[in-house]
Design brief:
By secondary structure, this protein is of the alpha/beta class. The protein contains ten helices and eight strands. The N terminus is likely disordered.
């Protein structure tokens, strides 16, 4: 009970602080405060949720600016994806759609590097899980030996998607992904995102899970911390159920950080996201972005 009251109080105070944050008095500023009513304050965590297990103070817009965040420049303006291992036709389609969503979300070119076969990895970077018998690859090897030294000159970041299960080393069973934010590289697996070949519902679930993983982790490469203020794509998640309830959009706090980093206006971004969501059949997300676009224009 104490924990729930504590987080509820933080949520209420955040609304007041954020409202004052967005009212700048500058006519050239984007009126992010108009978006506040569309977003839900972060709900108190359950006993096994991220914020119940990890204390996070949050990151305001001012704190973000003071952190000397990593942002694209004139040379490093592309997001690169490399496929690690074999993908069937359906999962390859999901990766292609994920790349399309990433492009609309960040407004940056998304490019694919030449795929990397799992056979190129040494035995020390692979294992069979002793209990589950899942074939796994070592994330630290992928980051340090495969990706870190292969970052293209025009790359803001390089992400690897693999069809194999991942493990980060001794004492761990598996991870969904891992990244080196300093080196702007990371690897994520779609192995545990469900089988998209079962039916349309399973396909959509796998697609959304893959998009959330990729877009969330790229957000960290822009130096965005986990969000504690609103229900937001940048919320931390401790388990699959919590991750599945995370939305596909940014709250006004995180959106303002991203727009500053990209030197962009959210209007065109919302227009692009609406188009992509319509193509993917994401009706809830399409409606949300339409309402956001309308709120900014009023």
């Amino acid at each position: 009970m104490f924990v729930k009251k504590r987080y509820l109080l933080i949520g209420v105070l955040s609304v007041v602080l954020l409202a004052s944050l967005f009212v700048t008095g500058d006519k050239e500023e984007v009126p992010f405060e108009k978006l506040l009513s569309l977003h839900k304050v972060k709900a108190p965590p359950g006993p096994y949720d991220w914020l119940a297990q990890h204390f996070e103070a949050g990151q305001t817009f001012e704190q973000y600016l003071l952190s000397n965040p990593t942002v694209p420049d004139e040379k490093k303006r592309s997001i690169y994806i490399v496929l690690l291992g074999d993908f069937d036709k359906t999962r390859n389609e999901i990766i292609q759609k994920t790349a399309k969503y990433i492009k609309a979300f960040y407004g940056m070119p998304v490019k694919f590097k030449k795929p990397i076969p799992l056979s190129s990895l040494p035995p020390t970077a692979r294992r069979i899980h002793p209990q589950t018998k899942d074939k796994q690859i070592l994330t630290s090897y992928i980051i340090e030996k495969v990706l870190k030294n292969d970052l293209p000159a025009d790359a803001f970041c390089l992400i690897a998607f693999t069809s194999s299960d991942l493990w980060p080393g001794e004492g761990w069973n598996f991870v969904f992904g891992q990244a080196s934010l300093e080196d702007r590289v990371g690897v994520w697996s779609i192995y545990r995102n469900g089988d998209p070949n079962i039916d349309e519902k399973s396909y959509q679930l796998c697609l959304k899970r893959t998009i959330k993983t990729g877009v969330h982790e790229i957000g960290h490469m822009f130096s965005l911390h986990h969000c504690i203020y609103y229900e937001c794509l940048m919320n931390g998640s401790n388990h699959r159920k919590e991750s599945d309830t995370r939305p596909l959009w940014l709250c006004p706090v995180c959106l303002k950080k991203l727009m500053w980093a990209l030197k962009a206006n959210p209007v065109k971004r919302y227009q692009n996201l609406i188009k992509v969501c319509r193509q993917f059949g994401f009706s809830e997300e399409e409606m949300f972005f339409k309402k956001s676009l309308q709120a900014l224009r009023e």
